[in-house]
Amino acid sequence: MGRALGVVLAAALAAAGCARPPKPLAGEFPPITPGDVQAGARVGERVRWGGDIVATTPRAGETCFEVVAKPLDRRARPRPVDETTGRFIACAAGFRDPAVYADGRELSVVGTVEALERGKVGDATYVYPRVRAEAVHLWPERPPSPPVVFYDPWPGPFWAPYPYYYWYGVGRIHVPQRPSPDRHPGRR
């Protein structure tokens, strides 16, 4: 019993350790979003934002990222959801290769809101909050979702006994049916 409790406790501690952000992203930050900054200027506010990279632009002495902001999880990683809190531009000192910081990769930054910057999204004019990034964290790519696998106890590639399975193109679907009395002579 003591060993089982130790294993459970170790697993719980390991899971709790995974829930912390990486050291450069750690800390307390106000719950403001890029959309909040667009509505009312909050220049000078220190923020932790993240999302999906849209573009990476190296410039003289710095690299700027255009990011579609997403809500962050407890580790400060952008959540893989179809919602956004706006867009922002984060600029960090030094060169970051656009081949590594590619479109669609997940990025989290910690920095200070410097200004609002006008730009374009398609043909629309957009006002981006610009962040001077102190810390930039590129997250590893998420593994692909595993395929859906089901167990089929019946032999043969395309058939199974009638009352239980029907063939529907890609897989078989179990459809339980009541047996009729004539199939089971002992029942009435």
> Biggest sheet: strands side by side, in what order?
1-2-3-5-4
CATH architecture descriptor name of the largest domain: Beta Barrel
| Number of helical segments with 4 or more residues | 2
Strand percent estimate? 35-45%
Main beta-sheet strand count, sense and barrel state: 5 strands, mixed, barrel
CATH superfamily of the largest domain: Nucleic acid-binding proteins
Count of all domains: 2
**CATH fold assignment of the largest domain:** OB fold (Dihydrolipoamide Acetyltransferase, E2P)
Description of the structure:
With 188 residues, the chain is mainly beta. The chain folds into two domains: 21-138, Nucleic acid-binding proteins (OB fold (Dihydrolipoamide Acetyltransferase, E2P), Beta Barrel), CATH 2.40.50; 151-188, no CATH class. The protein is 12% helix and 35% strand. It is built from two helices and seven strands. It has helices at 2-18, 34-39; strands at residues 46-59, 62-69, 87-93, 106-121, 124-138, 165-167, 172-174. The strands form two sheets. A five-stranded mixed β-barrel has the order 1-2-3-5-4. The chain has a two-stranded antiparallel sheet with strand order 6-7. The longest helix is centred in the N-terminal third of the chain and has 17 residues, at 2-18. The chain is globular. The two termini are 52 Å apart. The model is unreliable at 162-175 (pLDDT under 50).
